[in-house]
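chain below, 361 aa
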Amino acid sequence: MDVYPNTHRVFCTIVPPHVLDKLSHADDPAVAGPARRTLERDALERTRRRITTVRGVTATAERAPSNKPKRTIYDAEHETRLPGKKVRAEGDAAGRDESVSRAYDGLGATFELFLKAYGRRSVDDSGLPLNASVHYSDDYNNAFWDGEQMVFGDGDGEIFLDFTIPVDVMAHELTHGVTQYTANLEYFGQSGALNESMSDVFGSLVKQHVLGQTAEEADWLIGKGLLAERVTGVALRSMKAPGTAYDDDVLGKDPQPGTMDDFVHTSRDNGGVHINSGIPNHAFYLAATALGGNAWERAGQIWYDVLTGGDLASDAEFSDFAQLTVAAAQSRYGEGEELTAVREAWAGVGITDLRTRAGAR
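prediction:
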């Protein structure tokens, strides 16, 4: 039975195409070759996803949702046929392959954050099994959610390391699945940037939850530990300071804006979904740090309420999302510091004129 006929099962990668395109023109063939092959593979997978999307999303088999994940890890053995060889099932002891262990643990950490913080049981809130494939292709410089499972490359060792290293990368991609089953944000323009931002927000929250960090203690970096030693940079993106994650002769400079004043108008990257996501990312950072404590609690709860509340249109723009976070903050917490923090966070990135219900200031 097809219960999600209008769901967009988009192909979402952690490394944006504009980054890979920059690398594909490098003079060093050890850098350019893997980047070109990754772009070609991503284009093929993206086309495949468009073809299969018309079939809709297969319904999860009816069962009582569990408070425990059901994880299966596969080894693609450097091939591209998915899922690959089954190497670890739920409850199996860890083996020697660190990529397998990290993928298993990362899926579990993401499941745990959504369950403990928001009462959500897996990606679809109905206990959807969590499947992941590691060692995908050769020198593959990406990780992606294909609408059904997670896939991780090993990186080329020159620019990118193993994509299972940062837990927030895994959580980022799985959150695309949560968005797929909830607000179903279209993957283009501002709605696509919101889609990417939701994944960065909850990816960061999973990392903070794993490390037991408060909003003040967190680094707010996405993909820290992913860049190879030769790269001048610390991560793929910074929610705290968009545009500062890297500045490298080969990789280029982080293009993310932090405010609407610097919004990037482009036809590339589905209308800049990985670029302009820096704006709502920074708004969340401002709200979370203004409130302090554990960011997955009040700030994260407000963002989760909007993502899952049913009022967020699939083609929503930043201002639409911002307005809904104001309404969610007021609905859940009243007219206190949460409402103030959210309004001021959006003002901090250039989105103002946000209304509250009668009686709120």
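The chain has a mean pLDDT of 92. The two ends are 48 Å apart (CA to CA).
thats it, cya
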